[in-house]
Design goal:
The protein contains 8 helices and 11 strands. With 250 residues, it is an alpha+beta fold.
Length: 250
């Protein structure tokens, strides 16, 4: 994938999961959310630099130290030169995550609608969505729960919350964030005790159809490379890898 397209997807993905505090500095976005999640506490590159890298990196390290946080960068395959620069400063690229994309056309969305729609609910507000999400993710810390709610509330692009029922209980959840014709499928999680019975596939198919219904031309997602079960599911649904991103941290 071309660098310009990678930057586009990274920017709309950043709009879909925001930080509670942001500092813009010469095309870079420094994000802070009390250390909760990498995406909301790392440097995001929105545009090319005009200031020399050493000066910019020094600035970032200083500001993150003032926030009592490690200085971390979210970088992609398009940033190989910068990753090499940081590695010489003692940084390491970790948590490689693949970004996968699916074009929404009649061929890729030819599902049995009756099968998918049964027990699947959509809403534009997260009413009744956070509780199962926290439970499935085993997120018991009340501060993390509150930060999660605040992050979702701050997102300004269109959002759709999905719940899948099984035996009269919420059994799987996900959400969509739609911008510029691209729908980000994220927060995908199935109740741990009933994984492996096809609920994840049903959830993803429902998300694909809903994205098309909302006018999106593509749906994309982010999946860590150490999650082979999810990778296999997404490939079978037609998603194709576009590039990899990393967190680069000392």
């Amino acid at each position: 994938m071309e660098k310009e397209q990678i930057r586009f997807l990274e920017n709309i993905a950043a709009d879909s999961f925001v930080a509670l505090e942001e500092i813009n500095y010469d095309g870079w976005e420094l994000r802070f959310t009390q250390g909760f999640t990498g995406r909301a506490n790392s440097v995001h590159i929105r545009a090319e630099s005009t200031i020399e890298l050493t000066q910019k990196t020094d600035f970032c390290e200083k500001v993150y130290a003032e926030h009592n946080l490690p200085c971390m960068f979210k970088l992609t395959d398009a940033d190989r030169d910068f990753i090499s620069f940081l590695e010489k400063r003692g940084y390491q690229a970790v948590k490689p995550t693949d970004v996968m994309l699916l074009a929404l056309n009649d061929k890729n969305t030819d599902f049995d609608v009756r099968e998918i729609s049964d027990g699947v609910y959509f809403s534009t507000a997260p009413d009744g969505w956070f509780e199962p999400y926290f439970a499935f993710e085993k997120m018991e810390d009340e501060m993390k729960q509150e930060l999660t709610r605040k992050i979702h509330a701050k997102v300004s692009v269109d959002q759709v919350y999905i719940r899948v029922m099984h035996e009269e209980k919420v059994a799987a959840v996900a959400s969509l964030a739609i911008e510029s014709g691209y729908s980000l499928l994220h927060n995908v999680v199935v109740a741990p005790e009933i994984r492996g019975i096809g609920l994840g596939r049903k959830l993803c198919k429902a998300a694909i159809l809903k994205s098309k219904e909302c006018g999106a031309s593509h749906i994309y997602l982010q999946v860590m490379q150490n999650n082979p079960i999810a990778l296999d599911l997404y490939r079978k649904l037609g998603f194709e890898k576009q590039y990899t991103y990393y967190y680069v941290v000392k």
